[in-house]
Amino acid sequence: MPPACDTISTVTCSFEQARAAVLKEARARRKLPAIETIPSLEAAGRILAEDISTDRDYPPFPRSARDGFAVRAADLPGEFQIIGEVRAGSVFSGTVGPRQTVEIMTGAPLPAGADAVVMVEHTTRDGESMRTDRTHQSGDNFNPRGVEAKQGTVVLTRGCRLGFSEIALLATVGYTQVGVYKKPRVAILPTGDEIVTVAETPEPFQIRNSNAWSMAVQAARAGAEPVILPIARDNYESTYALVKEGLECDMLMLSGGVSAGKYDIVEKVLADFGAEFFFTRALIQPGQPVVFGHAQNKLFFGLPGNPASTMVTLEIFARAAIELLSGLDEPLLPLLQARLSREFKQKTGLTRFLPARISEDGATVEPLGWQGSGDVAALSRSNAFLVSEPDREHWAAGEMIRVLLK
Ligand code: AMP
Ligand code: MG
């Protein structure tokens, strides 16, 4: 067993500096995962690993945007002879001549000769004739062939996450299968002598291992395959053996053991694996003792063990690293602004991420009462985090404040 290194210098960062370090280091050090081909309908949430191009022009024909009458715009206004009808899924074989019109439905191809559509609401019909007092420009009320995308245009670029609109686009251009990145394996390593597995009956002084579950869910949501390791005990041998195992995955996330306590030995163990630490403290609350570095070519995070600290630091830092490792090109932290429902005060110095409820319309945010970083129940009543600026003491009710969606 290598000797423990007991001098690890503290590297303190602001929230912004810490986030920037995560993005920079994870981007620079990532090796993109291998590619697998899967059915497109099963690819929701996955990261696209190939560029997707159109197989033909979109729309593939000049497509009416309205129910109405296809005309030559130059003939408007006046009376027109109705020479036929065209509906979605069919074509009109003739040509629209001077003062002629074809009745047309939304989604139908514009007949040859016509260059505009008059909405049915703006016409009156009498047998085989149509009258309108409207005028139109050539091109009104239909989408010309190829305006959305010409054949061969890249419409989805590798490195994006596939959501419902991207999967609809795969369907549109005929991709039944799609190449996506394989999920990176992210090791989850809980630490603590007081921690027992969820299935055990805890003694009064013991705590169930909730962090492994929140971390697994957050890691999976970010795009990883979580690998939950056994609980490391607060001694060198146990932690060393499990860190070694964790570093065999693509990334390692620990919970607990990174504070200043006598038995907080995670950093010592990591240092003995040759770790370089990018930061060991961030000016945030909860989660101040958060650690980020790399060892043996793997990124690791030492997340503080208090459940709220673990969840917040994973969400604001580790998640971006997982996303980059998963192949995503642009991790996003969804910070918005909302109006405070009541006054908010804090001591300056830290960027705070506090449980809050944002209203259904996203306009108002209410800070929730909580008992500190161990209060999982308060977090579960929240649907967002209120995010303060570190240099400000007071916000009056009605003022705007930042909000991070959960
Ligand atoms: P630590 O960061 O190791 O000092 O732990 C801080 C607090 O978080 C302690 O009260 C721990 O009991 C609690 N804690 C640590 N690990 C976990 C875990 N895996 N699940 C739930 N709570 C934990
Ligand atoms: Mg501990």
The structure class reads alpha/beta
At the fourth level of CATH, the homologous superfamily of the largest domain is: MoaB/Mog-like domain
Give the % helix: 10-25%
Tally of DSSP β-strands:
30
User: Which ligands accompany this protein?
Assistant: adenosine monophosphate, magnesium ion
Radius of gyration: 30 Å
* CATH topology descriptor of the largest domain: Molybdenum Cofactor Biosythetic Enzyme, Chain A
State the end-to-end distance.
Answer: 42 Å
The rough form would be described as elongated
Tell me the major beta sheet.
6 strands, mixed
Strand order of the largest sheet: 8-5-7-6-10-9
- Look at the structure and give the mean pLDDT: 96
Helix tally? Answer: 7
Low-confidence stretches: 1-5
CATH-derived architecture of the largest domain: 3-Layer(aba) Sandwich
Strand content: 25-35%
* The number of domains: 4
Using the coordinates above, name the CATH class of the largest domain.
Alpha Beta
